[in-house]
Specification:
The chain has 155 residues and is an alpha/beta fold. The chain has a single domain, classed as Rossmann fold (3-Layer(aba) Sandwich), CATH 3.40.50.1010. It is 58% helix and 13% strand. The longest helix is centred in the C-terminal third of the chain and has 16 residues.
Length: 155
């Protein structure tokens, strides 16, 4: 069984329209809830991103409110990897191997710890960030870029 770890840049596309949104919606809708993983901090990061876009005038207040409401509901449908000491320690090791911001290393570390917890389950790392995809491949993950998937599906 293959599970999917939705990194922030991919998960965000489920709530705010960006390149790759259609591919993310197709993927999320095709999976059972127990096959979709996120870091426990990801919904908060998405919430902050929605509010930031609203304040910048890029999203109407009603659209932001609706996106936040959908985010609350949909986040419960994902397996959330807690940011426990094991994840934080693993993030330090990720930072030793890859040039990432600390919060990006936490995303990769959460995927690593989830993979260790669910031994024998293959996890595909989903991200719209080339840097994150490269780091995930360096940690032995298969990867999926929703922007590339959408372009391939359209073409």
């Amino acid at each position: 069984m293959t599970c999917y770890f939705f990194e922030l840049t991919a998960f965000f596309r489920l709530f705010v329209h960006e390149p790759g949104t259609s591919a993310m919606i197709r993927l999320a809708e095709s999976l059972e809830d127990n096959r979709k993983f996120i870091a426990a901090s990801t919904p908060l990061e998405v919430y902050a991103g929605i509010r930031k876009r609203e304040r910048a005038g890029l999203i109407a207040a009603t659209d932001a409110a609706q996106a936040c409401e959908i985010l609350r509901a949909e986040s419960t449908r994902f397996v959330q990897q807690p940011l426990n000491p094991s994840v934080l320690d693993t993030a330090r090791h990720v930072l030793d191997r890859a040039e990432l911001h600390w919060i990006d290393a936490v995303q990769v570390a959460a995927a690593i710890v989830a993979r260790e917890m669910f031994e024998g389950v293959e996890i595909t790392f989903v991200s719209a960030s080339d840097r994150m995809l490269e780091a995930a491949r360096g940690e032995g993950f298969k990867t999926l870029n929703p922007v590339e998937e959408e372009a391939a599906h359209a073409g």
